[in-house]
Model the fold of this input.
Amino acid sequence: MVLCLIHQHTAAIDELTERIEVVIKPFRGFCDLICSIPGISTATAQVITAETGADMSLFPPRATSPPGPVCAPDTTSPPAGSRAPTPAPGTLTSRRCSAPRR
Done:
């Protein structure tokens, strides 16, 4: 019974894989381009294509979009009202170990 279920699931996966290949065919170039990104597999590229489509006219051209990390807010100063953390008091052992030896 378990082997029969495995065969049924394998057949269903094969059928869906064939259907995905037929539907994704017009977007093959787009998928190949996405696959050139390190870490993106063929299956992931197909999911990205299915979710976003291949119409890049929805996104602004690169010249008008703001640069990435440069637009991030400056985080070098602490937030208003916050204080610097106070160091923990030393224990007898830590004071003894950090004291210079004579």
Notes: Residues 1-55 form one domain. The first helix runs from residue 2 to 24. The two ends are 81 Å apart (CA to CA). Residues 61 and 67 are 12 Å apart (CA to CA).
